[in-house]
Design brief:
The complex is a heterodimer of chains A (113) and B (114). Chain A has 113 residues and is mainly beta. Chain A is built from 1 helix and 11 strands; from the N terminus they run βββββββββαββ. Chain B has 114 residues and is mainly β. In chain B, the strands form 2 sheets. In chain B, strands 2, 4, 5, 6, 9, 10 and 11 form a 7-stranded mixed β-sheet that branches. A 4-stranded antiparallel β-sheet of chain B has the order 1-3-8-7, with no helix packed on it. The chains are: A mainly beta (113), B mainly beta (114).
Chain lengths: 113, 114
């Protein structure tokens, strides 16, 4: 099984930078994903990390340290539309659950003017 | 355009009834998954299927059943044995094991027991 932890809520100001942390414990690791989910909608893919280091994609970056079981999602130049829930998900090994993604409970981000 | 379609978007069920949620994909993905989302609980895995005619229980399979008779379709039945079925249900598909390939999600079905 897996244990994935992330903060429940965060608040940040428009134009600022925010970092959302995720820690995990897993018996089989096949990559870490970040998704964005607006209320009542399906999650949308933001980023993927399987090796240690930083992956940058426009205003969003994601970092992974496998030895520490730690990842963060960095959002720069925050916009009001970034107010959403951010889900950290770890892909398990095939033997455990057929490469299914295990999700944290999500971090609800509120961007204020 | 390829995608994954869930229907209906909203579903109301009376206590004691079984209901079936539809999930269809035309992405030619082998793997399909069903998740349940409750407020403050994140997404929890109900069932998954890696190939036609095969499926496995996830973390919270009790009170649910599935079938995978066609590659494109993975319907979920919420039975009367599921004591608290009110939730947002998400179906997803993927190419199993392909690096960097996460899920394609359907738009979800919100089930309410009345």
């Amino acid at each position: 099984g897996q244990n994935i932890d992330q903060p429940t809520e965060m608040t940040a100001t428009e134009g600022a930078i925010v970092q959302i942390n995720c820690t995990y414990q897993t018996s089989g690791f096949n990559g870490l994903f970040w998704y964005q989910q607006h209320a009542g909608e399906a999650p949308t893919f933001l980023s993927y990390n399987v090796l240690d280091g930083l992956e940058e994609k426009g205003r969003f970056s994601s970092f992974l340290s496998r030895s520490k079981g730690y990842s963060y999602l960095l959002l720069k130049e925050l916009q009001m539309k970034d107010s959403a829930s951010y889900l950290c998900a770890v892909r398990d090994s095939y033997s455990n659950s057929g490469y299914a993604l295990n999700f944290g409970k999500g971090t609800s981000l509120l961007v204020t003017p | 355009d390829g995608g994954i379609t869930q229907s209906p978007k909203y579903l109301f069920r009376k206590e004691g009834q079984n209901v079936t949620l539809s999930c269809e994909q035309n992405l030619n993905h082998d793997a399909m998954y069903w998740y349940r989302q409750d407020p403050g609980q994140g997404l929890r895995l109900i069932y998954y299927s890696q190939i036609v005619n095969d499926f496995q229980k996830g973390d919270i399979a009790e009170g649910y059943s599935v079938s995978r008779e066609k590659k494109e379709s993975f319907p979920l039945t919420v039975t009367s044995a599921q004591k608290n079925p009110t939730a947002f249900y998400l179906c997803a598909s993927s190419i199993p094991g392909e690096a960097g390939y996460g899920y394609t999600f359907g738009s979800g079905t919100r089930l309410t027991v009345v």
